[in-house]
Design brief:
This protein has eight helices and 18 strands. With about 475 residues, the protein is α+β, with helices and mostly antiparallel strands.
Length: about 475
C-alpha cells in the first residue's frame, strides 16, 4: 500500500470513530482529537520511511520479493522494524476507538470518602460517567412483635450520573428510585424518586478542594458508603438509621482534603435540621433533604479520618447548629415563639480490614436544647403519641466478619463471610423534667448472617435479626436478599 493508501486508511479510521454514537458524544473532546491527529502524523511518517527503504532495496510497493539479490541483513531488519511499528500503531488506533465507544472499566476504588460506584466519575479523564447500584430482599417474620408481615421489596435502584469537565471541575450526582414504584398499591404506599446528592467539586489541591450542592453529611460509615456490597446485612445498622439518619444530605458548601498524608478532613456549612421533625424514635424525620428547605438556621458539619497503619482507620465527626428554623413551638394553651433547639451530634468510629478480617465499631451521642418546649409542641406531640423528645440520645454498635472462602478454596477470588453485629440504641436516654421515657426506644439488636460475593460488584445476603426492648415486644426477622453495583 502506498502513502496515499495509508493516508486514506487513517482517514477512514477517523471517520469510523466519529461515526459511532460514542464518537459523536466525544467529538468535542480536545484530548481525543489531538490523539487521533498525532496517530495520523505518525502513520504518515512511518509510511514515508517504509517507502524509502523499499525503494532503496528495490522491493515492489505490493510487498512481493524483488528479482534482485536479497536485501542486506541490516536493511532488512530496518524494514521489519518499521512494519512492526506500523502494526503497533494500527493496534493503538483500534484501542482508541474502543475507548471512545466502550466505557472504561477498572478496579473498585474510592475517592474522597465516597463509595466505589459513586467515585467512578473521579477516575475518568473527561466526559460523562454512569454508574449505580440496587438492592432487594425478602423479609420473613419469625417472631411477631409489631404486627409485621412477610414481604418482598425491591428496596432501591440508584443511578450515579457524573460529568468531568476537565481535570479540576467535576459534577457528581445520585438519583434513587425506592420501592420499585411511586404509585400506591393494595399492600403498601408508594415509593419515591429522590436526589440523594448532587455536588459540583473544584479539585484545587490535595489539601483543599471545594464542594457545593446537595451534600452527603460526612457522619458515620454508611451515610457516605451505602452501596450494598460494602456493608453487612440486608438492612443498614439501626444506629445509622435512627440517630445518624442515613441517607442524610442537605444543601451546603465547604472544603475537603488532607492535612497530612494519612489525615483526611471534610468540613461544610449546611442547612440545619428542622426541629419540627424531631421524634421520640430519633432524628430521621428532621432531615430536609433539599426539598424547599427552611434555611433560617445553618449548621457546621466536620469529619476527620486518620490511617495510622495500613488497613486501619480511626476518626470522628460532629454536627452543630440550631434547628428551630424561626418557627413557633407550643400548644393550644402555651404559646412559644421561635426557639433555637441547638443540636449537637458527635460520632466516633474505627475500622480494621486485613487478611479477611473485618472489625468495625461506632458510637454516637446527640444533645438537643429546648427539648421540653419541643415535647410540648402540638404538632410534635401528635406525631409521637405524647412521648417526649429526649435531651440526650445515645447509640453504638460493633461488628465482626471473617472471609472463610480462602480456607475452603485457597486460590479463589470469591468472598464468603459470616458476620455478627451488636447494636445498642437509646433515643430516650435523658428526657425533659415532667416526662417519662418511652422505654420501647431503649433497644438491643443482635444481627448475624452470611455475605457472599462471587465478584466484588455483586453480593448475596442472608441474615437474622433479634431485637430486644426495655418495654414491649419486638419481632425476630430473617432476611434473604442481595445487591449489585455497576
Amino acid at each position: 500500500m502506498n502513502v496515499t493508501g495509508y493516508r486514506a486508511l487513517a482517514l477512514v479510521c477517523a471517520a469510523i470513530l466519529l461515526a459511532t454514537p460514542a464518537g459523536q458524544a466525544v467529538a468535542d473532546n480536545d484530548a481525543a482529537r489531538r490523539r487521533v491527529e498525532e496517530l495520523e502524523r505518525q502513520q504518515q511518517q512511518f509510511n514515508r520511511e517504509l517507502q524509502q527503504l523499499r525503494r532503496q532495496l528495490d522491493i515492489p510497493p505490493d510487498g512481493s520479493q524483488p528479482t534482485a539479490a536479497p536485501a542486506p541483513t541490516q536493511e532488512g531488519e530496518r524494514v521489519e522494524e518499521v512494519e512492526r511499528r506500523q502494526s503497533i500503531l494500527a493496534s493503538e488506533v483500534d484501542r482508541l476507538r474502543e475507548l471512545l465507544v466502550l466505557p472504561e472499566t477498572g478496579e473498585l476504588k474510592q475517592y474522597y470518602g465516597l463509595a466505589p460506584a459513586a467515585s467512578r466519575v473521579y477516575g475518568i479523564k473527561r466526559g460523562l460517567s454512569i454508574g449505580g447500584y440496587g438492592e432487594t430482599n425478602f423479609k420473613l417474620v419469625v417472631k411477631d412483635g409489631d404486627g409485621e408481615k412477610n414481604e418482598f421489596d425491591f428496596v432501591r435502584f440508584v443511578m450515579y450520573v457524573g460529568y468531568k469537565y476537565n481535570d479540576w471541575i467535576v459534577l457528581n450526582s445520585e438519583i434513587e428510585f425506592e420501592h420499585a414504584t411511586t404509585s400506591s398499591t393494595v399492600s403498601s404506599g408508594g415509593g419515591s424518586v429522590s436526589l440523594e446528592f448532587a455536588t459540583l467539586d473544584f479539585l484545587l489541591h490535595e489539601h483543599a478542594n471545594a464542594r457545593g450542592g446537595l451534600i452527603l453529611m460526612p457522619v458515620g460509615f454508611v451515610n457516605l458508603v451505602h452501596e450494598p456490597p460494602f456493608y453487612f446485612g440486608n438492612t443498614r445498622p439501626p444506629v445509622e438509621i435512627a440517630i445518624i439518619p442515613t441517607t442524610w444530605r442537605e444543601p451546603g458548601f465547604g472544603l475537603y482534603g488532607n492535612i497530612l498524608p494519612d489525615l483526611d478532613y471534610q468540613m461544610y456549612g449546611v442547612v440545619s435540621f428542622n426541629a419540627k421533625g424531631y421524634r421520640n424514635t430519633g432524628l430521621r424525620n428532621a432531615r430536609q433533604q433539599g426539598n424547599r428547605d427552611l434555611a433560617d438556621d445553618w449548621a457546621f458539619v466536620g469529619r476527620l479520618d486518620y490511617d495510622p497503619i495500613p488497613s486501619t482507620v480511626v476518626g470522628g465527626s460532629m454536627f452543630l447548629g440550631n434547628a428551630g428554623q424561626d418557627q413557633d413551638f407550643g400548644n393550644d394553651t402555651i404559646g412559644f415563639e421561635g426557639i433555637g433547639a441547638f443540636t449537637q451530634l458527635y460520632e466516633v468510629h474505627a475500622q480494621f480490614q486485613s487478611h479477611g478480617v473485618h472489625l468495625r465499631a461506632l458510637g454516637t451521642a446527640v444533645h438537643i436544647d429546648d427539648a421540653l418546649r419541643l415535647s410540648q409542641d402540638a404538632q410534635i406531640s401528635k406525631a409521637t403519641g405524647g412521648e417526649p423528645i429526649a435531651k440526650d440520645m445515645l447509640g453504638a454498635y460493633i461488628e465482626l466478619a471473617y472471609d472463610v472462602m480462602p480456607l475452603i478454596l485457597p486460590d479463589t477470588t470469591h468472598y464468603l463471610a459470616p458476620w455478627f453485629r451488636y447494636s445498642w440504641l437509646d433515643t430516650q436516654n435523658n428526657v425533659p423534667s415532667g416526662y417519662s421515657p418511652d422505654l420501647r426506644q431503649r433497644q438491643d439488636f443482635y444481627e448475624f448472617g452470611l455475605q457472599y460475593k462471587p465478584i466484588p460488584e455483586v453480593v448475596l445476603k442472608a441474615d437474622y435479626h433479634i431485637q430486644d426492648r426495655a418495654s414491649g415486644t419486638a419481632p425476630d426477622v430473617l432476611r434473604l436478599g442481595g445487591g449489585f453495583i455497576f
